[in-house]
Amino acid sequence: MTILPGPDCTTMTEVRAGVDTLDRDLVALLARRFAYMDAAARIKPERGHVRDEARKTQVIQNARAEAMRLGVPDAVVVDLWETLVEASIAYELAAFDRR
Predict the structure, then answer these.
(1) Which residues of 17-55 are buried (b: 16+ CB within 10 A; e: fewer)?
(2) Are the CB atoms for 56 and 85 separated by under 8 Å?
(3) What is each CA distance from 94 to 32, 34, 64, 76, 77, in whole angstroms?
(4) Where would I find the H helices in 1-99?
(5) Residue 64 in contact with residue 74, Cβ under 8 Å?
(6) With helix as H, strand as E and coil as C, how does 45-64 read?
(7) What is the DSSP letter of 3?
(8) pLDDT along the chain (99 residues), means of 10
């Protein structure tokens, strides 16, 4: 089945196929993001450096700005990124503790 852009879909089968493909892509991107957390845990000299509130704020603001630029609900993106960044911090802390 050809995956169509959302606006071109005419059936729910097409919509669901597109969403399923996109979800797989998103998980692959998350795997890449977490690989960066592994690198950060390896590079940072102290566990206390893992949590960086200024950087967290910057990352969430960047995501919000991109959401606004693309015309998607920025409040939803902010909530998602809050969860993503906190999960990334927890992952990085665990990776730091394993080294």
Answers:
(1) bbeeeeeeeeeeeeeeeeeebeebbeeeeeeeebeeeee
(2) yes
(3) 17, 12, 27, 27, 25
(4) 12-43, 53-70, 74-98
(5) yes
(6) CCHHHCCCHHHHHHHHHHHH
(7) P
(8) 81 94 97 98 96 98 97 97 98 95
Structure tokens given for 33: 């993001």
Take residue 75 and report the two structure tokens written for it.
């409040």
A 10 A CB-CB count for 76 gives 10
Highest CATH level, class, for 12-98: mainly alpha
Task: Please give the pLDDT value at position 2.
Answer: 72
| pLDDT value of position 81 | 98
Q: What is the DSSP letter of 72?
A: S
